[in-house]
Structure formats: C-alpha cells, structure tokens
Amino acid sequence: MSQISNLYRLQQIDSQLDASNTNLLNIERDLNDSSTLISAQQAVTQAEEQQKSIAKKLRDAEDKSYETRVKIELSEASLYGGKIQNPKELQELQNEIASLKRLMVNLEDKQLEAMMELEDAESKLMWANEGLHDVQKKQIEQNAKLNGEKTKLQGQIERLEAERKATLPTIAAPDLGLFEQLRKSRNGVAVAKIVSRACTACGTTLTAALVQATQSTGQLVRCPTCGRILYPG
After folding, report:
1. SS3 of 141, please?
2. Is 120 in contact with 55 (CB distance < 8 Å)?
3. 229 exposed, middle or buried (CB, 10 Å; 0-12, 13-18, 19+)?
4. What is the pLDDT along the chain (233 residues), one digit of tens a residue?
5. Where are the domains positioned within the chain?
6. What is the CATH number of domain 34-169?
7. Helices (H) and strands (E) in the chain, counts
8. I need a surface site. Which of 38, 56, 87, 222 has the fewest CB within 10 A?
C-alpha cells in the first residue's frame, strides 16, 4: 500500500475516532442529565407542600367550626336552662347565639371551600406522582439503551485505536508530522479524496496535471486552495 493510501486510511480511522468519541461524550452527557427527573421531583414536592398547606387550612376551619358549635350549644343550654332570669342577660345571650350562628355559617362556607381545594390539590399530587413515575420509567429505559450504545462505542474506539496504532509505523515521520499539523489546522481533515477532479474538502476544481501528479509521482500533492493532502482514490 502506497504512502498516500496509508495516510488516507489513517484519516478514515481518525475521522471515525472523532465521531465515536463525540458520540461517547454525548451519551455521557445524556446519562448525567437529570434535569427532567429533577423537574418532575420538584413538581411532586410543590404539589405535596400545597396539599399539606390546604389540609392544614381545612383542619383549622374544622377546629374553629367545632369550637363555635360547642359555644353555641353551651350558650343555648344556658339560654334554655332556666338559670338566667334577667331579661337583659337573656337578650344579650340571644344576641351572642345569633352572632355565633352567623359566624358558624361563614366557617362552614370556608370549610367547604377548603374541602374543594384539598380535593383539587390531592388530584394534582396524584398526577405529579404519576408524572414522576413515568419520567423514572422512561429514564431507566433510556439509560439502558444509552449504556448499550456506550458499550458498543467503547468497543469501536478500542478497535480503531488498535488499527491506528498498527497503521502509524507504515507512514514516514515527516509525512505523519504534516498529517498531524493539517488535522489540527483543517478541522480534523488532513487528507481529502479527489472526486470528479475536485477536492472533496473545499470543492476546488483541480487541473488535470495536478490530478495526474497525485497518481504517478509518489510525492504528496496538496490542494492549492485548502492545503490538504490529496488522495486520488
């Protein structure tokens, strides 16, 4: 195999390695990305806090209703017990009972409102928990798939690195140095194949003499525009 063929093969290996390593980094990023799970967990936490807050509101309303009901019962027992004979005291007691009953109506309305709010909050909490369960299930499935792809990529990288290691001794040191330099300065592509008399890297149309030189001189020929090493194919 000629020197240019060895360089072109090295270019193919390195391009595949670049792609595989990029894909591996993307997989690692996706495996470490827990933003969706965190968002679902936060939704559950918020729903729980809201449910607890409304449940407390309902308990407070129930306690106040109970206390008011007891006061009404005690006041009515005093009113009808016969112990109070003073008309003024009886009138004041009747007024107090009327006031307590008005308060009781208001408290019962608040209690009913809190019950409806609690029902809604419990429904939202249920949906938040179901959403979290779905996210967890999907993440487990996605991670299993990603780990499978990761293992496959690691095998490809290991094979390509072994192939690269075997290819390096077939390339002269000066040519390898030029190759590495071009890889760094030309976005990872040091060797460009000629297709239809054009450099596939930059699209420059090549002269017939230049194309012929890549096929016959045995010397490395570079694209006059982008400077990459040309491979006749």
Report:
1. helix
2. no
3. buried
4. 488 999 999 999 999 999 999 999 999 999 999 999 999 999 999 999 999 999 999 999 999 999 999 999 999 888 888 787 888 888 888 999 999 999 999 999 999 999 999 999 999 999 999 999 999 999 999 999 999 999 999 999 999 999 999 999 999 999 999 999 999 999 999 999 999 999 999 999 999 999 999 988 678 999 999 999 999 97
5. 34-169, 173-231
6. 1.10.287.1700
7. 5, 3
8. 87
Q: Which residues contact 171 (CB under 8 A, 6 or more apart)?
A: 3, 6, 7, 10, 179
Backbone angles phi, psi at 229, to 5 degrees: -70, 135
- Token readout for 114 is 């809190």
Amino acid at 95: N
Q: How many residues does the chain have?
A: 233
